[in-house]
## 1
Amino acid sequence: MTEEFIPYGSQWIDEQDIEAVAKTLKSDYLTTGPKIKEFEEKFADYVDVKYAVAIANGTAALHAAIFAAGIKEDDEVITTPITFAASANSVIYQNGIPVFADIDPDTYNIDPESIKEKITDKTKAIIPVHFTGQPCEMDEIMKIADKYNLTVIADGAHAVGAEYKGQKIGSIADMTTFSFHPVKHITTGEGGMITTDSKKLYDKLIKFRTHGITKNSSEYINESHGPWYHEQQKLGYNYRITDIQCALGISQLEKIDKFLARRKEIVKEYNKAFNDFEGIIIPEQLEDTNSAWHLYVIQLDLEKLTADRRKVFKDLRDTNLGVNVHYIPVYYHPYYQSLGYKKGICPNAENLYERIITIPLYPKMSDQQVEEVIKRTKEVIRKNQK
Ligand SMILES: *Cc1c(COP(=O)(O)O)cnc(C)c1O
């Protein structure tokens, strides 16, 4: 008999969510209506920031933030290779150049020391990614940004609800982006958000989301022709999110604390099971941070194993665990190779990549499923121990 398949991540939709969406479907606005503002205000309130802009998806959020930061041709933006490609792609959308800094081998997050080494007179911004939900060393990063006059755009796709020194992720960097893809903390199907305390950045983000068009007369460059008048001032996109999606987002956000608590509870079980288990290194956490635990990444202690990651991964998949790898270093992808990025630029990231496996973690997991993941993972590792 084959065992139950357990994916690495999954949404949790309940009747309240379905009702909220149905109600919006019966309302006057499917898009550009009141649910968008309501979702933005509630999200801003949650992360304790002045402004939030809801947008089509997390990638559009990054693109908008790169635009608002004024990134243009040949500007360099420093980010990590241990992230989803979108963190770096967004820079290229505006003809900037992603520069990869190495990671800290303990936290797997971008290493502030490596950021410093990568700064040139073309550097304009930093995109730290709060990988797995663990906050980056923001004090260090903001200090560097201050010294070199750089904009910090944090990719918080993994970090809704994470805290750094008591402060929510979303209110520390100049801008923070979020994703509401179904594997993330809360979902709108597709969706994203940018948060900022800056009115100036907010105004740019809002216009970018709708073609670069403004209907705010106080901003007009030319004289108004009449009540129908509006102006396209920059090249923007249609990156709008719908009221249907935002209604779901509002309903999901009401459950964020429950979702986060359940993720933490599961992590506690995993830590207990795998701490001191030969062949597995559990994820290390910085002091004074509170991870949102989007992912649970085990690192294989290859010196203690007879197998490599490829073999262990296959063995885990063979037990019907939906394990995954987060991430292939961005510059390994053929597109980045075609741009001239060479292997070897971030040795810590490359070394980590050979050893990591993401095991299932999502709030809807039952205790029994958690036990199953532990049991199957231990069996596979035991089989491959020296
Ligand atoms: C999910 C994710 C994104 C992209 O978000 P989408 O909503 O899928 O566009 C960007 N960065 C990271 C780190 C992500 O995990």
## 2
Amino acid sequence: MLVLEIMAGWMQSVNQSMMLLCLIFLGMAPTANSIYPRIRLSHKELLQMNRTWIFQGQGLLLQPQTMLLDESHQRLYVGAKNALFSLNLDRVNAHYRQINWGSTEFQIEECMMKGREKPECANYIKVLQQYNQTHLLVCGTGAFNPVCAMVRVGHKGQETTFALEQESVMSGKGRCPYDPNSSCISTLRRGELYIGLYTDYWENDGALCRLNNNTYTRTERNDRQQLNEPKFVGSAVIPDNDDRDDDKVYFFFTERETDGEGVNRGVLTQIGRVCANDQGGQRMLVNRWSSFLKTRLICSVPGPNGIDTHFDNLEDVFVLTKKDEKNPEIFGLFSTTSAVFKGYAVCMYHMEDIRAAFNGPFAHRERLEHHWTAFEGKVPYPQPGSCASKMNGGSFSNSKDFPDEVLRFVRSHPVMYRPVLPHHHRPILLQTEPSRRKLTQIAVDRVQAQDGHYHVLYIGTDDSLVLKVITIYNKDTDSIEEVLLEELQIFKVPAPIKEIIISPKRQQLYVGSEVGIAQVRLHQCDLYGSACADCCLARDPYCAWDGLTCSRYYPAGVYAKSRRFRRQDVRHGNAVQLCNGLQIDDEQWQRAEERLIYSIESNTTLLECVPRSLQAKVLWFVETKGEKHEVRGDERVIMTPHGLLFLHVKSSDAGVYVCQTVEHGYVHTLLRINLHVLRAERLDLAMRKAKNEGGDGAAAQCHSIIIPPAAPSVSSQSLQLPSVPAPNSRLWYKEFLQLIGYGDAQKVEEYCERVWCSDKKRRKTKRKYAALGGVKRGKGRGEENSHRAPRHTLDT
Ligand SMILES: *[C@@H]1O[C@H](CO)[C@@H](O)[C@H](O)[C@H]1NC(C)=O
Ligand SMILES: *[C@@H]1O[C@H](CO)[C@@H](O)[C@H](O)[C@H]1NC(C)=O
Ligand SMILES: *[C@@H]1O[C@H](CO)[C@@H](O)[C@H](O)[C@H]1NC(C)=O
Ligand SMILES: *[C@@H]1O[C@H](CO)[C@@H](O)[C@H](O)[C@H]1NC(C)=O
Ligand SMILES: *[C@@H]1O[C@H](CO)[C@@H](O)[C@H](O)[C@H]1NC(C)=O
């Protein structure tokens, strides 16, 4: 279809410069480190394409504190303020169940009497664990008076059961912090709760504990060598071998470093571990860990002057379990601790490196003011920090049997000398540009693609985004490439992402922020376009071109149907090689959409062309006498992210313009624009003719479309063309187009009827100009933003 468009000079010169400034600013080339997402999707777009569903509860801010995925019951449990929810994993906003669990009036009053603010004096659910097949263990802050209870969820298949067992309500002291803002992590194994928290009202006693119905084992109180002002970030139970007695519990936390004088210095990230079966000592270390050790988790990049930049503040951690349970991959999201320079990094760790660090040597210092050295003295047997298991010849069946010297040693040497270094000795992802955007959460999926396995990182930001990124390590150059596949705006309003849970089974993310819980599909392959090149250039390991469309990639053998050839190249995105012969450029050139655009001499004209991919480079060509020349742009003809902008169109500018994109060497012709430049005198003539012919009201509607309706700054002067007293529309157009040399009256008539006068098109046009108006004001992301229009330079 031939698309015809009339662009009258709709920009007034006064506003012109402002608008241009914006366009030019937005078109700034990204600096070396920044990467553009290939696709950017607004909240509205995600909703429209059914990629996301949002649960917001009833009216009030949900304020979720913790979430738990239960695949066996097909539910997502959410601990929030004064309430617990059980959501449907298929549709978080349908058929949910709710337990209200607030504090009593009396408790709230008591809390406020202690000097607390009203919002703090509520029951924030911070612990939510699967206790056994039928019950959850749930604990809340209870208006600064922690409480725990059991929640019945029933057996598998009884998904509608969701009830708090009143008789199970008990004190939550030592299992849940008092302060809603307090960091708290927990994990449950065989009915035992492992938890990192501040156990007291004043938040002095940070501890790593284990609770079961008869014992309470924990770190030493007031031992700054074990824990010093910890912030608890994550925990996991990881087996060492097939002997369950050798299972270890790992804790990830930050703490303050102290110097010789006991003065607090910077913050560091630590990984601590205990034996899951640790019963403490018999005579000493009673109800204290007999196996607690810790070491530093490093995430840094080498600096030019030999000084490394350290990312010492752990924001979030994700343990990616694999078939081999003993060797999960661990991903840490870190930030710098500097007040001046805020950067973020993701580092990945392997268990073998972690185990190696815990196997020694121990760190030692003679006195507080001395430096740490590797302990070179005699280490007692069994190895301090090892578990009472078959590993030690089976002679110790319980930690209470360990010799005193072992306990004494572990008590005085809880720190390992060697830190844990990340895989590749550097971050796999970096954000070092000054930016207001903070990274808050991480979840990782391991995806099998045709050319290997990829880690797809989902990173939450403080402004409601989830970034979907892959990182590709190049062995030859020893470098890491980050590919930002998608930038998804999960919530309508900017709010920090507080939690991301991934369900590889369902191919869904569950994302929590204080405004709600979102369910988001991991991929949407058709979005990249139906051509082989579109799919290949996307480099999304979930997607491959199947000969017809871009669709979900399944590794061979998963489905019999998928045996036919699939085209995918995540590592290089080499569409030229992969899709060659499928689309001949010449053919494309001819087949590309064609548009006719009219401009008035010395007016401003924008030839709009925005590629779907924000990573594509746009090139413009003009065809004259069968030859094509690249348009380089100058001070009059400017290449903007929205298209080619002519400041003062000359008649010599008329011609056929071709908009092409280049991405990974693949050239794609998007659009051919036939630009006609009208002489002012001829236009005047047309106007006068039109005026003389008069018209009716209905036609005015049709004409008004030519005016950018949402651009109030356009003066009446530049509205000359459409503001003529409405003539008979069809006649007028016919005359007008004939006058300017366009012959096919039939088409014109059809066009006016079908396109210009239809409501749909009108709204669309209106939107387009409204959007441009938004650019002019240089404001943030509008609801209507299309993923085709880059509004911001991305600073990720
Ligand atoms: C989204 O879902 C609604 C209701 O289920 C349906 O009517 C609509 O067509 C869907 N939209 C898309 C883009 O699939
Ligand atoms: C947590 O602390 C921040 C300030 O540090 C405060 O604004 C917020 O209200 C607190 N949240 C709760 C639930 O008390
Ligand atoms: C789970 O624990 C609860 C509370 O202790 C108990 O009542 C229930 O019987 C247990 N369920 C199973 C299946 O063991
Ligand atoms: C908790 O107590 C019950 C009854 O006293 C006992 O049967 C059970 O084994 C205990 N659980 C743990 C984890 O010790
Ligand atoms: C656009 O062209 C019209 C008609 O010649 C003229 O009156 C108007 O001033 C022009 N506008 C600009 C911004 O140059």
